[in-house]
Design a protein that fits this description.
By secondary structure, the protein is mainly alpha-helical. The chain is 56% helix and 7% strand.
Length: 87
């Protein structure tokens, strides 16, 4: 997503649904090779869908940049411990 490539993933129990939330990618059932193939063909043949996935994916990836994630963890640590001296 960060490389501005549309994503098609299997909807395994942990990860993809959260990572691709808000329409950042297409999810297909685990083990459904036909659904995977159809989704890939759909992305390749539908320029509007492809563009939407690329844009939403890039937005989603930006929300997970290391600096932003580190800041969020720091804020959580401060809130949980009440220690404002935590760098």
């Amino acid at each position: 997503m960060a490389c501005r490539v549309p994503v098609v993933s299997t909807d395994c129990p942990t990860g993809p649904a959260e990572a691709l939330g808000s329409g950042a990618g297409l999810l297909v059932p685990v083990g459904d090779h036909l659904a995977m193939a159809e989704s890939i063909v759909r992305v390749l043949s539908d320029a509007k869908l492809r563009g939407r996935l690329v844009e939403r994916g890039a937005e989603r990836a930006r929300a997970h940049e290391p600096e932003l994630v580190a800041r969020a963890y720091l804020q959580l640590a401060r809130r949980v411990t009440g220690d404002r001296s935590i760098a």
